[in-house]
Amino acid sequence: MPAFGLDIGSSSIKLIELTGNKKQPKLTAFGLAVNPVGNVDTDNEQELVQIAQAIKKLTTDAGVKQRRVVVGLPESKVYTRVVEMPTLSESELASAINWEAEQYIPIPIAEVQLDYRILSQPQAIGSNKMRVFLVAAPVAVVNRMVKILELANLELEALETEMLGVARAMTQQQNNAQLLVHLGARTTDIGIVQGETVVFTRSISTGGMALTRALAADLGLEVASAEQYKRTYGLDKNQLQGKVRTSLLGVFSSLVSEFKKAQHFYASTYSGGIRRLILSGGGAYLPEVTSTLASELGVEVVIGDPFAALNLTPQQRQRLGGIGAVFTVAVGMALREM
Ligand SMILES: Nc1ncnc2c1ncn2[C@@H]1O[C@H](COP(=O)(O)OP(=O)(O)OP(=O)(O)O)[C@@H](O)[C@H]1O
Ligand SMILES: [Mg+2]
Known about the structure:
This protein is α/β, with parallel strands linked by helices and 338 residues long. Among the domains are: 77-137, Dna Ligase, domain 1; 173-304, Nucleotidyltransferase, domain 5, CATH 3.30.420.40. The chain has ten helices and 13 strands. A hairpin with a 4-residue loop joins strand 9 (177-183) and strand 10 (188-194). The radius of gyration is 20 Å and the shape is globular. Bound molecules: adenosine-5'-triphosphate and magnesium ion. Residues 9-12, 184-187, 207-209, 212, 227, 230-231, 234, 281-283, 285-286, 326 line the site of adenosine-5'-triphosphate. Magnesium ion binds at residues 7, 9, 184, 281, 329.
């Protein structure tokens, strides 16, 4: 059975279909469409129908036959946390986790769906406690996803937070700690991974849209032109006397300081520092974003390729060139079923 991954973003919807096995996955379909609502955070019936119709069309156009789909849950809607607990057996942990979660999750436990996994690695410095990665998704958010899928004539196979998908898709990472930065339209998600294990996540409600808005305001441009300026000149110092860069940095700097905080958090909690930053999401293609981040953070910065482990045909490679990183979450979701 093919694996079907879906990423319903606020600006665009992405789908990926893979066949084969984990060792040799094969890309059999992919698709990208504009989210007609420009948001996912809605309970408006009509808007949900519009999103569902866009998904339905995308699925048909891409030729996806599989109905069961793995969908990404926006990091911003989910509470994730690494908690330290005394070493417990699986069954002890299963009952203790609710009590533990109550301390960290700001909404009633009855209103969330809890999930967790034990992080066997790494050992924290000077601690023999076990570390547990806790995920709590509000039931309302889960129900909304299920509803959209139903309207799109699809069935939910599994839900997973986006960062877990990003981590899975970025297979070039190995062993060393890496900072994953996923730059979307409305949000920027940060994760720290060791191997494939996510040990830290954070979501910031600033994304590509905020960059475009700042540029529109500062340079007195229409939003559509500002979007073009952003994509063409980005953070390049040598374009338009650096005016675009300066304007974008007004917003981008706040993101950089969040990346630095994550870097410091890691350095103070685990041994060894972050070796590399991997960018994904549409914002990864902002001109000069890698060089800017590399000089700010002092680490190697690359644009991630979620298709690196897939044997793409030359045509697929050509069509995905320069936009591959946009599909990171969708690839990660599909890989979950491999
Ligand atoms: N070449 C580029 N340079 C700069 N930004 C870009 C470029 N291409 C796309 N973007 C930006 O990427 C964003 C869209 O990325 P993506 O599709 O990952 O977001 P999304 O998943 O729809 O949003 P979210 O996850 O926040 O709901 C937009 O803000 C867009 O302006
Ligand atoms: Mg997204």
